[in-house]
Amino acid sequence: MRTLLLTVLFLAAGAASAAAQQKDKDRRGLVWDDRPTIVFGKDITIGIRGRLQLDWRQFDPEVDEDTFDFRTARIGIQGDVTRHFSYEIEREIDREAQFGDWKDVYLAWKTSDAFRIKGGRFKMPFGLEQNTGPTDTDFAYRSLISTAIAPGRDRGAMVYGVLGRVGYEVGVFDDDGANAELEEERFAVEGEDLEGVGPSFAGRITGDLFRLLPMPAKLKNANFGLAYTNAYVPEGLNSLKGESVFGSDFFERVYVKGRRQRLGAQFDWTPGPTGLKAEWMQAREQRLGQSNRNEDLSDFLSTGWYVSGTWFVTGEDKDDNINPRQPLFGGGIGAIELGVRFDELELSSASDEGVAFTNPRADYQVPNADRTWTFGVSWMPIRWVRVVSNAIHETFEDVARAPKPGVSSYWAGLLRLQVVF
Amino acid sequence: MTLVIRRCLLAVMVVVGAAVSAAAQTSDDFFNPEILQRVDVWMNSADWSKLKAAFQENTYYPADVTWNGQTVRNVGIRSRGLGSRSSTKPGLRVDFDRYATNQTFLGLKSFVLDNLTQDKSGIRETVAMRFFTRLGIPAPRETHTRLYINGTYSGLYALVESVDKTMMGRVFGSIGDDVQNDGYLFEYNYVIGSPWRFAYEGSDLAPYQARFDIKTNESKSDTTIWGPIEELVRLVNDTASASFEATVGPRLDLAGFVRYIASQNFIAQNDAFNGYDGMNNFYLYRLEASTSHVFIAWDEDNAFLSSDFQITTRLSDNVLTRNTLQLSAYSSKYFEGLLDAATSADGWMQTEMERQFTMIASAMQEDTVKPHTNAEHAADRDTMLAFAPARIAYVRCEVAKTVGTTRPAGCPASAGQ
Fold it and tell me: Domain residues for A95?
């Protein structure tokens, strides 16, 4: 613990010192460009990237979670190789200071703004918040839909770009995202072959819709998006599942087989120091031949949405890469942002006829939902350090499947120290 | 009256009649020992394959169950048993309320499908439980059933009542409106490699928790649940004979216990309370609002070992048995219990065995997943049918010899007689 704290303080101090340095456009060699960066020339760079998040948490009522959470530790490199290519390699570091999971590992061809290609492991183009890095989100934890429905990272290839004012991303991926990994070991009845998940296809278009309409100028930069994914999921207890903010299952996986589709809509508006975001998502999973009598069941549905609002009381522009106007070591107090978010995730079946059961092969599933309010205050004393405090209130519809059966409402308080370079 | 109206009325009468018939069925009908039942289980074919592949695990799978025209949907079903577990003919436990809180069928929350894999005759368990019931020993209701999985005949099983709160209500009845099933029910857990014969294992509750699985009142404190068990074991071990009945008696139905072990000995059960490898195969119930415990019979697949199974087998090995039978009053009750069992068996047991063999004959012959041949079944059938008369005579002779009363005619000569 002490070593970690020292590391954090060291990094924070180093970052503060570096911030004071004047950027030099003609730099070569090892320079500081928001992060330690090796510059070979104008278009060849190796930026060293690090992220660290340490959480202290309190729960009421107590749930089986640690008070201290070593949430995120990652190190990686990112940069450019000529003006045609960019890349990123990032890997997690676990509590024992050993390398863990690979995160982003990709190479992108970016010669043209209208047509770019990315290949490797990266986030599938679905979900506004899911595609925002963990150190850049407005709140300590992503909304429930961003972790339960949005697919997350996968190996694949994607074309993307901007045509006029419309952004597009279309990709094909090996599986169906890390958030939807198969739970059950694949099982085949004698004489049948094992099936794998995927490949999946994902696409998203985004655009400033209001620019096409006679709207007030302030609304012109409101960004809208629609996204869709499609994948084949093999037979098994492999559906999406409902997981609370702190990882307790409130809806366990059910048997699925067939097509998994996701549909998502997103909205992002950042006028000045304020931000307003909203997303809606639904996943539909087929359950072909999954009844107790090998008959088809109605689709399994995961549906949710959130809306959030934020405000930099210190006046920073939300649209920019956030940098405190008056950093702590520059005569100011840094940047302070307030925020509130409501989000909901409900899992159910398309059928609601007859008697509902929790049986993973029931046609009519007993629905359950988690509704969460998050209130947040973030303090960014300098560019690279952020202190986040969140109060989180979760309510579960089916108390029998709440983290503590019979108890429907939960409060949690969180204080996070975050260092990013 | 038009033809249409007449047909409608007929249809209504049929539906009402069927409903009345279904409503009239009870759990007694389900476990009716005079009838070979048919139970259909409908489960996803992948789940059935998984259950058989992972038969050592207690993973639940969803299923529908049909009996006598009534279907219960979305029950939970899993592999069960200890030595009887099988990948080809799994023993099964069916829970009606696994996926729907409070779902019951005929008032039952669950039942067991005993695969009979350890019993070539197929009737040891069912005859033993009916016999215990005749003797007034708490025992589950049982009969036989053909089991069909997804419409395919999957073997002859015993249909066994679960020992649970519902059964406790049936056995111990009501006082006024208060059903006497809120006591503490324990299933004895045979710990492999650690045979136990009621020796005191210290004041720590952990050893008793390991051996007595709580089945009711699970949310109560450990002290409330297992404290009285620890106390019972301690007092059984530490109390002198002179005060044994006064001290232990309020905590254990000693007369019922003696009757229970006498009956188990009569049916030559070698793997029970006074078993060859310590205690095994029973439930213990602490009566509602009481300190008193009673024993419930369970799993008699290995009964009827031999007609000359000694009537004093391992009576001195188990601390509870030994210390109870040291009291002359209870020693007498033990032998009386043996004679009562002989009397009850006389004229009934062999007839009952013949009836059950007749009832299951075709189902047994057609059971292709049983782990023995039809010839082996036939041989065991003959052995079983010979058991009752030989056992009755043997027990009567041996009791007379042991307690020093007049030996019945036909007893073999022995030294000193």
Answer: 43-420
